[in-house]
Amino acid sequence: MAVGRWATVIGLSMTPALVAGQSLACAAGIGFGLDPRVMVPVVAVSGFVEGLAVAWLGGQTRRIGFVERFMERMRKPRAMEMAAKWGVWGGMILGVAAVGQEPILVALRALGINMRRLIFPLAVSNALFAVVYYAVVRFGVDKFLETIKL
For residue 56, how many other CB atoms are within 10 A of its CB? Predict the structure, then answer.
């Protein structure tokens, strides 16, 4: 039965944030009584693997003609200025906090960011948010904000 519990945590971690995502994976892991010292890294690595797949697919869709034309229409000066100002790190930390990693990864790939430039920020982002999601789910939003003094 333990394999099914870990498979549930991994599967939920690899689900887009708007559907379920890492926060639900942490909730499931806490409910299953899994050790957080193992669960949080598993959630982070699973989200990282999913992010790599999304980023790769985001680059592959540019080969489709109508998608490329749509992306070119969306490439407005304001979007380009914001991407240049905040860069990959801003997108992977601030953007992920706002809308989740999937739309940010697709947007960064649409803006022409190479996969190699995304690997380290994606890993750091997943590690950071796995810890944050675990803390928020485990202790609640009020306790979490009190702990970080907000």
Answer: 14
pLDDT in tens, 80-105: 777 778 888 988 888 888 888 888 88
In the block, residue with structure tokens 């906090």: 97
Residue 29: burial class (beta carbons within 10 Å; 0-12, 13-18, 19+): buried
Residue ranges of alpha helices (H) inside 75-114 are: 77-90, 96-99, 101-110
pTM as predicted: 0.82
Residues 6+ apart with CB under 8 A from 99: 17
C-beta of residue 40 within 8 angstroms of C-beta of residue 110 = no
- CA 78 to chain CA centroid, Å, is 24
Q: Which residues contact 122 (CB under 8 A, 6 or more apart)?
A: 48, 51, 52, 55, 92, 101, 105
